[in-house]
Amino acid sequence: MTENVAPKEKAYLNFIEQIVARDLTDGKNDGRLQTRFPPEPNGYLHIGHAKAICMDFGVAQKFGGVCNLRFDDTNPQKEDTEYVDSIKEDIEWLGFKWGNIYYASDYFQQLWDFAVRLIKEGKAYVDEQTSEEIAQQKGTPTQAGTESPFRNRPIEESLALFEKMNSGELPEGSMVLRAKIDMANPNMHFRDPIIYRIINKEHHRTGTKWKAYPMYDFAHGQSDYFEGVTHSICTLEFVPHRPLYDYFIDELKEGNDLEDHRPRQYEFNRLNLTYTVMSKRKLLALVKEGLVDGWDDPRMPTVCGLRRRGYSPEAVRKFVDMIGYTKFDALNDYAMLEAAAREDLNARSLRVSAVLNPVKLIVTNYPEGQTEEMEAVNNPENEADGTHTITFSRELWIEREDFMEDAPKKFFRMVPGKEVRLKNAYIVKCTGCKKAADGTIEEIYCEYDPESRSGLEVSAAHCLPAEVRLYDRLFNVENPSADERDFRELLNPDSLTVLPNCYVEKYVAEQTATRYLQFQRIGYFTYDKHSTPEKLVFNRTVGLKDSWAKK
């Protein structure tokens, strides 16, 4: 396989792509490029995973390689087929296709056989200490660890106990299998790492066949090798794991020439986003405790949450491109994600009229029962999107915030005695208003100039009621992951505002297949999954402008 990136494009390659281009030019792995995306099916993917997806699948796509999907299903305590299905859906929604689907569980027998070989070679042993005792004996980065009292137990004894670990008769935590490497190694991961533990829970694919399961560091590199992965791309927290990754691969194929035919691990920075968390544990807690409306709550950083909120896959990929890939972790501003959404949605959204905080405006000199219709442009950014018909009548809905009885000089909307133009309609002059006993404005009155027609406004009689949900940041502190307080205390109480008495033009109800909407002068919206023709429900994706900074 040859590199298919033109020379003039090389200047725009990120550092991982530059490595791949160089390896292909040098003929490593016989000129092949094979990557993999290896999620653990223990939760729904979030936007941090989206960045990894864009890298793993994107680099294979750019250089004519293949990216496989491999589920790291080595811990049946947390994994479920529900998560497997959601991961597939999210990858496809983002616009990527995998070459093959694999599971770490496909290699359980091969990994078991490798572990047995290590025991026979005196390179692994069964340890019966508690996890606390093992942790205490690890030492510190500047102080060597202490050898386990079981480190030099007879090979035959370790083999027998290892078989017993998989028999189902031993409780979890009673024994582990450890690689015998170097308890004085400055890299803590080399200090006799645990490579197998007991988990007495049925596996979603293998059932009850296994009770002893491999650890991530033992399974990951070998799985890459079994599959023929050439570039194992992961995030920066795996940098100190890389030597152990290479060590096990060397042991697996000891004595063979691996230099040009082996997977190589490369790392890039994680995606961290302000005002949210990426911890699966915390996200799961939010869901389980009912603090959000499921994994796809539009406030969640999950891919399905972004989809439900109205983000397009192109907007997510645009955001990933904006922040780029480096070797340094950073905290990315949530406003950048919203900016990417605005830029993308501006080009693809259907423009419609809606009123979120309505008050009735009556054009007193317009004939009762009369209506006017005219074509409205669906999207000024794309002429091919065409037009639709809107209706004007004597009674209209306007935003309550567009009227003030006693307004400052710079208030250029509706004020008694002054003229304004209704959007896409006539010039009107406000003549007064009607108030309730508590002072609330019930109706506003105006007169129109028949010669000033430029288009048409939306008629109150030709609108439909709707519920609109305004979403904002899930947390009220910039970096909740770094805050020592319980993350539940940091939730933004104003992250969701429900407006039950809104109005939208009837045309909107006919466009259920149109996912992306712009409520003119308000923001970008989408139909919620609970929306029905009888009860329209819309989620705000993002406002037309960034309002968070002002807060």
Helix and strand arrangement:
Blueprint: H1 15-26, E1 34-37, H2 47-62, E2 66-71, H3 81-93, E3 101-103, H4 108-120, E4 124-127, H5 131-137, H6 155-165, E5 176-179, E6 194-198, E7 212-214, H7 216-227, E8 231-235, H8 242-252, E9 264-268, E10 272-273, H9 280-288, H10 303-309, H11 313-323, E11 331-332, H12 334-348, E12 350-352, E13 354-355, E14 358-363, E15 372-377, E16 387-392, E17 395-399, E18 419-421, E19 427-435, E20 441-448, E21 463-471, E22 496-505, E23 517-519, E24 523-527, E25 536-543
Parallel strand pairs: 1-2, 2-3, 8-9, 10-11, 12-23, 14-20, 21-25
Antiparallel strand pairs: 4-5, 5-6, 6-7, 13-22, 14-17, 15-16, 18-19, 19-20, 21-22, 23-24, 24-25
Q: Oligomeric state of the chains?
A: single chain
Considering DSSP H and I runs of 4 or more, what fraction of the residues is helical?
A: 10-25%
Number of strands: 25
End-to-end span in angstroms? 54 Å
Strand order of the largest sheet: 12-23-24-25-21-22-13
pLDDT average, as an integer? 93
Description:
This protein is α/β, with parallel strands linked by helices. It is built from 12 helices and 25 strands. The chain has a 7-stranded mixed β-sheet, with helices on one face. It is elongated and about 100 Å long. The model has no long low-confidence stretch (mean pLDDT 93).
Features:
5-stranded mixed β-sheet, 25 strands, 12 helices, alpha/beta, 7-stranded mixed β-sheet, single chain, 551 residues
Quick structural overview:
The protein is an alpha/beta fold and 551 residues long. It has twelve helices and 25 strands.
